[in-house]
């Protein structure tokens, strides 16, 4: 793992090692805002309340007794590839590896909400983590706060899981033990770890990680841009090999590899440029299309016979017709970095 921040731990998957569809155990990227809370599975409880017919207090055994569901989903940190932005911005300096894929097992959030009974007028579901602390950036918090994020009721009642197992094993402390949320198709900040509370509300949640952080400027009609919470992942392709700065032999065949993903659609096409974006050619997709899961791809390249530098790019298109933009939109700030990332290599 590549250490981007030691405390709290922010660890990056070495993307150049990508080979399998599922990220190997111990290599899934780690995003932490506060220290990992120390939770005991036997004593842990999940409080469910707010705009519900009856409040619930569920143990891990209660969740495990419900009908389980397993799904595969790719999670990408909203700040992945931040180190490619110019000028540089604040935040964890992720390069390529704040993205990973795992198989998740748990209980549909919809089933828990059904048991609690959502009352008319509900609009959002707030997920509350046990991790807490104080922050100075992007704004100073008013003392200690917990990590909390909300979902529209429709999404919460759709495909969100309350997860207790990852790749067939219990969650580790860094990944949200004993229970976390997995929100397929959304950036990782929505998949709250160390879950201890679920609250149904009749007004939009305005917490720190919903407004001051993990938000961006969005244009809506004739009005001035408005701050909008981050949600669905944008279409994106990344090159795994060669790695940035790698030296390749001149005049030799080389297989460029990588992965591409999107939010609520499926990847249908990946293109590669070996000349800095002047020309593009289609890559071969090596995984079947599946919602919420990256597709690996490969591209056969003959390296130049003349030694020198080369800039490689990849771009993806999804089934909704969305293709990566050529540039980063200023209103997206330090998040949603989806322009084709330049991978500079040397040919000798």
Describe the structure.
- This protein is 6% helix and 38% strand.
- The protein is built from 4 helices and 23 strands.
- Strands 4-3-12-7-8 form a 5-stranded mixed β-sheet. Strands 5, 6, 9, 10 and 11 form a 5-stranded antiparallel β-sheet that branches.
- Strand 9 (161-166) and strand 10 (169-170) form a beta hairpin.
- It starts with a strand and ends with a strand.
Looking at the overall shape, the CATH architecture of the largest domain is Alpha-Beta Complex
Kindly state the mean pLDDT as a whole number? Answer: 97
Give the number of DSSP strands.
23
| CATH-assigned homologous superfamily of the largest domain | Oxidoreductase, molybdopterin-binding domain
What structural class results from the helix and strand content? mainly beta
Helix content: under 10%
SSE order in H/E notation? EEEEHEEHEEHEEEEHEEEEEEEEEEE
Instruction: Name the poorly predicted regions.
Output: none
- Largest sheet geometry: 5 strands, mixed
Shape: globular
- Intertermini distance: 29 Å
Strand content: 35-45%
- Can you identify the CATH class of the largest domain? Alpha Beta
The figure for the number of domains is: 2
Widest beta sheet: strand line-up? 4-3-12-7-8
Instruction: Fill in the CATH topology of the largest domain.
Output: Sulfite Oxidase, Chain A, domain 2
Number of helices: 4
Estimated radius of gyration = 21 Å
């Amino acid at each position: 793992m590549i250490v981007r921040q030691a405390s709290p731990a922010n660890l990056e998957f070495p993307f150049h090692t990508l080979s399998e569809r599922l990220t190997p155990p111990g290599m899934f990227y780690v995003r932490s805002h506060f220290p990992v809370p120390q939770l005991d599975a036997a004593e842990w409880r999940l409080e469910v309340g707010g705009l519900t017919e009856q409040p619930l207090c569920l143990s891990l055994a209660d969740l495990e007794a419900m009908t389980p569901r397993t799904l595969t989903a790719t999670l990408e940190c909203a700040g992945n590839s931040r180190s490619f932005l110019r000028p540089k911005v604040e935040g964890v300096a992720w390069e390529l590896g704040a993205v990973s894929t795992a198989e998740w097992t748990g209980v549909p959030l919809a089933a828990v909400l059904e048991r609690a009974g959502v009352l008319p007028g509900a609009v959002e579901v707030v997920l509350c983590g046990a991790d807490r602390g104080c922050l100075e950036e992007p704004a100073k918090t008013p003392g200690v706060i917990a990590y909390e994020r909300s979902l529209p009721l429709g999404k919460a009642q759709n495909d969100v899981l309350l997860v207790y197992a990852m790749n067939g094993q219990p969650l580790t402390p860094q990944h949200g033990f004993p229970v976390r949320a997995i929100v397929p198709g959304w950036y990782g900040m929505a998949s709250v770890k160390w879950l201890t509370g679920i609250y149904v509300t009749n007004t939009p949640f305005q917490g720190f990680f919903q407004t001051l952080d993990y938000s961006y400027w969005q244009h809506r009609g004739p009005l001035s841009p408005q701050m909008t919470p981050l949600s669905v992942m944008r279409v994106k392709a990344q090159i795994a090999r060669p790695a940035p700065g790698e030296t390749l032999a001149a005049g030799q065949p080389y297989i460029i590899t990588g992965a591409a993903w999107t939010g609520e659609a499926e990847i249908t096409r990946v293109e590669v440029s070996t000349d800095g974006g002047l020309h593009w050619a289609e890559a071969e997709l090596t995984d079947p299309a599946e919602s919420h899961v990256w597709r690996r791809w490969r591209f056969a390249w003959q390296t130049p016979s003349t030694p020198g530098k080369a800039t490689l790019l990849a771009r993806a298109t999804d089934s909704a017709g969305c293709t990566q933009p050529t540039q980063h939109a200023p209103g997206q700030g330090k998040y949603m970095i989806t322009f084709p990332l330049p991978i500079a290599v040397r040919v000798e």
